[in-house]
Amino acid sequence: MPDRNSPALEFRDVAKTFTLHLRGGVQLPVMAGADLAVYPGECVVLGGPSGAGKSSLLKMAYGNYRCDRGQILVRDGAALIDVASAPPRQVLSLRRRTISYVSQFLRVIPRVGAREVVASAGREGGMAADVALARAEELLARLNLPERLWDLPPATFSGGEQQRVNIARGLIAERPILLLDEPTASLDAQNRAVVVELIRARQAAGAALLGIFHDTDEREAVATRVVDVTAFAQKRAA
Ligand SMILES: Nc1ncnc2c1ncn2[C@@H]1O[C@H](COP(=O)(O)OP(=O)(O)OP(=O)(O)O)[C@@H](O)[C@H]1O
Q1: From atom 30 of ligand 1, which residue's Cα is the shortest distance away?
Q2: Are 171 and 195 in contact (CB under 8 A)?
Q3: Looking at the structure, do residues 150 and 179 belong to the same domain, yes or no?
Q4: Which residue ranges run through the membrane (predicted)?
Q5: What would the pLDDT profile of 146-186 be if each residue is shown by its tens digit?
Q6: ipTM here
């Protein structure tokens, strides 16, 4: 069981400004002085208006965006890794072992079927091939993806079908930190309820979750705490 008394993920004094090189170097400050700790067993939901920087925080934690200042500390077993300064090799290793990220959209791989898209994420996380395959099928069935689609590449799937493959891919390896960027945005009520159950199960198992949920009911169903990122932007203006 993870140590619940120390954060699994912690942002310390993080600042981010986008520079638009194709627009004459226009600067877009998004946040400064962002401090946030997420503990094992928590589901912290990011709140605040559109454009406040919620997705940017998740992308910085996953190492997709660099931050300009501060630290993003990830507990990786006994080690503490600063994603903000870690070399790419170390960030990739964190993605294999420690952090999962369910983005809003599935990045489809041409010619690879849905079941394999999910199972391969399990294998990358260290599962044996047969276990990964069985777990992939279990998740796809739970998420009501029709079996006739399992061997087809998700490129032609509906938005909601792609999103469910994406969720299965993000959840299969059961890593200690889970980042969720509106995972239920394109789902119907029945599938939203399944995703809420899966998220709560990860939380009960001691994972640290950080997510964005615009739907109030879902937010209430999963959040142990809501953090308004507008406060980070206000620090920026101060
Ligand atoms: N890659 C990028 N290049 C330039 N600006 C960006 C980039 N990504 C985000 N931004 C800007 O940063 C600000 C914060 O965006 P972000 O997507 O983090 O907000 P958000 O709170 O998640 O919004 P929403 O709720 O609408 O998804 C916005 O003003 C956005 O235009």
Answers
A1: 51
A2: no
A3: no
A4: none
A5: 999 999 999 989 999 999 999 999 999 999 999 999 998 88
A6: 0.95
